[in-house]
C-alpha cells in the first residue's frame, strides 16, 4: 500500500496548504493594516524622506505618507477578502479545528517574523518558546495516525468518536466515506 500512503500524504499537504496560505495572507493583511494605521512605519518615513530629498520644493511630500496609508488600507481589505475565501476552502478540505489552528499558528509565527524583519520589532526569547509550542501543537494535532487506523484529524474534526474509536454519529461514517470518494 505504498501508493495509498503517498496519495494520502499528498491529500494532507493539499488540505493543510489552504490553511497555511490563509494564515500567510492574514499575516500580510496585518502588515498592511499596521502600515495603514500607524503613522511612522518605515515605509511611510522612507516614502516621505525620498519625496523631500528628490523634490524639496514640493510642499505636498507629507501627503505621500498618507497615500501609502490609503493604499495599505485598500490592500488590507483586498488581501482579507482573498484570505477569507482561502480559509473557507481550508475549512471544506480539512475541517474546522485543523483549519483554524493551522491558520492561527501560521499567522502567529509569520506575524512575529514579519514584525522583526519589516518593522524592526524585538522578539523576546519567551516569544520563540511560545511559537515553538504553538507549532508543536499543530504538528501533533494535524499529523500522525491513530492505532485504530483512522487519521487523527478525522477524530478531532468533531465526528463524535468514543474512547474506543467508534462513531457516535451514524452520519459521520457516511460523511467520511463521501470525503474519501472525493479525494
Automatic annotation (TrEMBL):
<dbReference type="InterPro" id="IPR037185">
    <property type="entry name" value="EmrE-like"/>
</dbReference>
<keyword id="KW-0812">Transmembrane</keyword>
<protein>
    <recommendedName>
        <fullName>EamA domain-containing protein</fullName>
    </recommendedName>
</protein>
<feature type="transmembrane region" description="Helical">
    <location>
        <begin position="125"/>
        <end position="143"/>
    </location>
</feature>
<keyword id="KW-0472">Membrane</keyword>
<feature type="compositionally biased region" description="Polar residues">
    <location>
        <begin position="161"/>
        <end position="170"/>
    </location>
</feature>
<feature type="region of interest" description="Disordered">
    <location>
        <begin position="145"/>
        <end position="183"/>
    </location>
</feature>
<dbReference type="InterPro" id="IPR039632">
    <property type="entry name" value="TMEM42"/>
</dbReference>
<keyword id="KW-1133">Transmembrane helix</keyword>
